[in-house]
């Protein structure tokens, strides 16, 4: 297991620059909106988050506007099809992004790059932990060679969600 752990740590360190630190589409915006709204607004009203990302061109499609800026729930809030789980898992990384934003002089508003980078890195970290825990669990039942773990990483959507679209 030590060899596999060492390989995973080396691969993570070498692949760190490949993490895409941006929000790209409506799914990512929905997951991120939970975290930003709870952290800064202390609510789950996503109007301002959706407006920010729509106006900023991140999710500037007619379908996004209609679905997330025109429709409301029965309670009058904006719709969110995402779940809160990602926000909860990202929260320690988001906190680090908040500190980093203050240190580098970026806006401490939940929208600046340190926050986005922090949650993207958080997704990659959780992906690596998934691989490590998965192999640890599997090895309790059968021998699992290190190359198998690397093949799972490269041959499943995990790679995409860790590096191309981590949020």
Secondary structure topology:
Layout: H1 2-15, H2 26-41, H3 47-55, H4 62-70, H5 85-104, H6 113-138, H7 146-155, H8 157-164
Helix pairs in contact: 1-6, 2-3, 2-5, 3-4, 5-6, 6-8
Write up what this structure looks like.
With 167 residues, the protein is mainly alpha-helical. The chain is 67% helix and 0% strand. The protein has helices spanning 2-15, 26-41, 47-55, 62-70, 85-104, 113-138, 146-155, 157-164. The longest helix has 26 residues, at 113-138. The two termini are 29 Å apart. The mean pLDDT is 91.
Helix and strand composition category: mainly alpha
- Measured between the Cα atoms of the first and last residue, the distance is 29 Å
- Count up the helices: 8
Element order, helices and strands?
A: HHHHHHHH
Largest sheet: none
Inertia-based shape:
elongated
Q: What is the strand tally?
A: 0
Low-confidence stretches: none
Give the rounded overall mean pLDDT: 91
The proportion of strand residues reads under 5%
Give the C-alpha Rg.
Answer: 18 Å
Q: Which bin fits the share of residues in helices?
A: 55-70%
């Amino acid at each position: 297991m030590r060899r596999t752990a060492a390989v995973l740590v080396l691969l993570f360190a070498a692949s760190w620059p490949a993490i895409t630190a941006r929000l790209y589409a409506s799914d990512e915006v929905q997951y991120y909106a939970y975290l930003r709204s709870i952290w800064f607004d202390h609510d789950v009203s996503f109007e301002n988050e959706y407006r920010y990302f729509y106006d900023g061109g991140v999710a500037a499609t007619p379908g996004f506007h209609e679905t997330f800026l025109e429709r409301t729930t029965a309670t009058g809030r904006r719709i969110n099809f995402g779940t809160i789980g990602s926000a909860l898992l990202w929260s320690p990384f988001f906190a680090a992004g908040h500190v980093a934003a203050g240190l580098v002089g970026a806006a401490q508003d939940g929208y600046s790059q340190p926050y986005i980078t922090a949650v993207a890195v958080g997704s990659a970290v959780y992906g690596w932990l998934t691989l490590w825990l998965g192999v640890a669990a599997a090895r309790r039942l059968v021998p699992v060679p290190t190359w198998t773990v690397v093949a799972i990483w490269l041959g499943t959507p995990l790679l995409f969600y860790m590096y191309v679209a981590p949020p």
